[in-house]
Amino acid sequence: NKITVSVIKADIGGLCGHTLAPEDLLEACEGVLEAVVDELIIDYYVTRCGDDVDLIMTHRMGVDNEEIHKLAWNAFEEATKVAKELKLYGAGQDLLAESFSGNVRGLGPGCAEMEFVERPSEPIVVFCCDKTDPAAFNFPLYKMFADPFNTAGLVFDPSMTGGFAFEVHDIMDSKKVILNTPEETYSLLALIGDVEKYAIKRVYRRKDNEIAAVVSTEKLNYIAGEYVGKDDPVAIVRAQSGFPAVGEVLEPFADPHFVAGWMRGSHWGPLMPVGEDDATPSRFDGPARIMALGFQLADGMLVGPNDLFADKSFDKAREKALVMADIIRRMGPFQPHRLPSGMMEYTTVPKVLEKLKDRFEDIEDEPKKLEKCRERGDVE
Ligand code: F6R
Ligand code: MG
Ligand code: MG
């Protein structure tokens, strides 16, 4: 009697530009999901964050289920038809494959899923982002599950004092490692502080290995080989009774952190927590947004949502994010507003630089430092 929560998302067109997925797209998706309620899925909620459409579904089919993934793909395809009729910007942009084959992973959409036995009362928080990438969750998940200054339960709740285990993915080399907190905290930070290479995929409670959190870690640009929009992530977090309280799950976002994304997926900027009505990134196509929708599961039914970041207690975080946005925007195309070259590799910038390639010449009388080091065997 396990329940699966699947959150599958895709950008299938914006009104206008990359700012917002209009209501018409959500309705098209809802039509497809509604037709299979009680048949394939138990319940669903469709929303959008910026230009991304998020399908939140519950069912009993387990994670990575072909029928569920096909359902999501069909919903996105139906919505793409509408997007094309309306000539929305980037219609069907994230449906990279010509047709569905087995699993949405690798085809374009992003996906976060977890399966568990529903507790007598099961509060979950679904996070949806726009204009940033999966590693944006590294910092807040660390705070939620490993920082006692954020999560009092790590100190006060005996179910949590044993700590949490983090499954970290090397998103470039497709490798994973599990690190246990609190004792491996420093090693964990050594990895996840590098948001270019590592992303937290899952978090488990060590006491009983219960799944606590999952993030979509698909990197669109690695799938498509070039820049096709950011990998705007989603995440699911279980809360209360031995997991962080809802307020502890939300607390990391009260003090905004810098994430990669924003304009052209090429800039650092603050992650601004917003309610559903304010998930409309416009300034410089941003700044990056995150929504938090709280649900109670009732035998798989999604009771809610409670639009958690709409609360007044996040007003200051929003103001702060806007101040951070002003400060870093002044740098324009200069680092550290602009991302480092490694992170720009899959943007359109290499094409721009390619044009200059033949114009470079050697600097006379300047020793070739790198060549010298190689001769000495200092570097490879
Ligand atoms: C960022 C994003 C936008 C676009 C920008 C340029 O994730 O989607 O900031 O990169 O609007 O878009 P194009 O190249 O489609 O004109
Ligand atoms: Mg878009
Ligand atoms: Mg987007």
Please summarize what this structure is.
The chain has 380 residues and is α+β, with helices and mostly antiparallel strands. It is built from 11 helices and 15 strands.
Unreliable stretches (pLDDT < 50, length at least 5) are none
The whole-angstrom Rg is 21 Å
List the bound ligands.
Answer: fructose -6-phosphate, magnesium ion
Tell me the number of strands.
15
Helical segment tally? 11
Helix content: 25-40%
Question: How many discrete structural domains?
Answer: 2
Write up this protein.
The structure is a single chain. A hairpin with a 2-residue loop joins strand 14 and strand 15. 25% of the residues lie in helices and 27% in strands. The protein folds into two domains: 2-341, no CATH class; 348-376, no CATH class. The strands form three sheets. Strands 5, 6, 7, 8, 9, 10, 13, 14 and 15 form a nine-stranded mixed beta sheet that branches. The chain has a four-stranded antiparallel beta sheet with strand order 2-3-1-4, covered by helices on one side. It has a two-stranded antiparallel sheet with strand order 11-12. The termini are far apart. With 380 residues, it is of the alpha+beta class. One magnesium ion binds at residues 11, 14, 18, 51, 90, 93, 229.
